[in-house]
Each structure stands twice: as structure tokens, then as C-alpha cells.
Amino acid sequence: MTEIREHQQSAVRGSKLLMTGSTMALTDELVSLSLRPAIDVGPEPHRKPLTEAEVEMLANRLLHESTGAPLWIFAYGSLIWKPDFDAVESQNGAARGWHRSFCLQMTRWRGTRSQPGLMMALDRGGRCNGVVFRLADDDRLGQIRRLIRREVGTIEDAATVRWIPVATAHGVVRALVFWAGPKGERVSRKLPLETVAQVLARACGHMGSCAEYLYLTVKHLEERGIRDRNLWRLQKLVAAELVAIHGLNAAAGSH
After folding, report:
1. What values do phi and psi take at 114, rounded to 5?
2. N or C: which end of the chain has fewer CB within 10 A?
3. For 212, how many CA atoms within 13 A lie in the half-sphere containing its CB?
4. Cβ-contact 12, 251 below 8 angstroms
């Protein structure tokens, strides 16, 4: 009980930064309150994972499409802070005609079937500032395979893999991006940020929580001098949700 009380007091101190200036409202302490053990029950029955043959077919197609030019990957979410490739260069870049959107419902990874989460994808319109990574030329096919296994769950999801132009300080590069323009029954567009915050503050799966996913994305964007206005507002809303869920305002008032 003492450890729990100390933990809550620490979270209270973090929650008092709800928030002015440039300091994030969503803190390590608040994020830790969103984490809980979860069992991976595997893919949903109606979603058939990619076969090895389909992985190979998609990887070879993308390899062919990348031939003769550097292979750039546009990262706008978890690939910024948890890349699964060997990059030899990175630059900040802007993808025009796209914006980040928590529009993809997930019942695995950072959500469950009883408490679904939301994953970021790119949706049409606006501008998305992120990071482009140039992959090493060695074992290009192998690195593409790794990215597919991480990012593409089913053959239907392969339709969200696109080549897009990304503007950098050194010119425009052609970059590969995942989860751009998703379609299907799992997609919910134009959700109010308040609704998204309620989901992110509560959803957690075997890979972690949605609040953690948001926190790490905003934190690493800030470290690169990138501020997404919607994500910045969203992290404040999620922080406030976690404060309310765990009764931290009441706890703060009792000390």
C-alpha cells in the first residue's frame, strides 16, 4: 500500500503540470498507471494473417519498386521511437496531403476485445511532420520483410502500404509509408479528440497501453523539434482522463 500511495503521489505531482508552456502533461508516472498485464489471445478469427508466400510476394514487389533509388521510410508514429530496420540517415520531413489520425480500432497489441484501443494511421488531408529514415542498401529485401511482418497483418492491410513524396530540408524524397488511407469496418474517422482520449486512457494490451503509445510518440517528436497540434492537445486530454480515472485530484487535495 505504501508503494501504491507513493506512486500515486508521484503521479499527482506530474498531473499538476496539466499544462502550460512546453512541458508535457502526460508523464511517465501517469502512463505507468495505464499499464496492466494482458494475455495475447491471437488474431481475430475473421482476420487471416499474411502467409509466408504473401509476405515474400509483397516484399519482392516493394523491392522492385525501390530499385535504383535510396530506400526511405516515412515514420510518423512508433517507427520513430521503435524502428525495425537499419537506418544510415534520418531527416525531419513533411508529407503533404496526409495527417495523423487515431482512426484504426485494434483489439490486440495495445487493446483487447473487451477494451479495444485506437492506433494511428495517416488519413487524407492536411500535412504530417515526421521523420524519414534511409535504409542501408545491404539486405534491402530482408529489411523490407521485417517491416512487412511488423506493420502488415493481413493481405487487406497491404493496400495501406504506399509510396509518398516527403519534403525535407534537402529536397523531396520518395518514401515508403505504412497505414496510409486504411479502409474497412475497423476504421472510424473524424472522432472527437475527447472521445479518442477516453479510449487511449483506458485501452491496454499485451504490448502496452495506448497512453504509452501516444506518450512515446509525442515525446520523440518533441525531441526532434516537431509538434503536432492535435497530438499535443490529445496528450493533455489523456493525462486529464488518467488523473480522473485514478482519483488523483482527490488524492492531491488530501495532502
Report:
1. -85, -25
2. N
3. 17
4. yes
**What would the grid cell of residue 19 be?**
499544462
Is pTM, for the whole model, over 0.85? yes
Quick check: 223 and 250 in contact, CB under 8 A?
Answer: no
Q: Domain coordinates of the chain in residue numbers? A: 48-245
Look up residue 159 and give its three cell numbers: 493496400
Nearest to 34 by CA among 253, 189, 240, 232: 240
Residue by residue, pLDDT tens for the chain (255 residues) are 333 344 444 444 444 434 345 899 999 999 999 999 999 988 887 888 899 999 999 999 999 999 889 999 999 999 999 998 889 999 999 999 999 999 999 999 999 999 999 999 999 999 999 999 999 998 999 999 999 999 998 988 999 999 999 999 999 999 999 999 999 889 999 999 999 999 999 999 999 999 999 999 999 999 999 999 999 999 999 999 999 999 987 554 444
Contact in structure between 178 and 171 (CB atoms under 8 Å): no
The active-site residue, picked from 29, 151, 212, 241, is 151
The helices-and-strands tally (H runs, E runs) of the chain is 9, 7
CATH architecture under which domain 48-245 falls = Roll (3.10)
Phi, psi of 121 (to 5 degrees): -140, 175
Residues 6+ apart with CB under 8 A from 74: 93, 95, 130, 131, 132, 164, 166, 175, 176, 177
d(CA 239, CA 31): 8
Tell me if residue 222 is catalytic: no
For residue 65 the three cell numbers come to 519498386
Which one-letter amino acid corresponds to residue 1? M
The cell numbers describing 108, all together, are 490486440
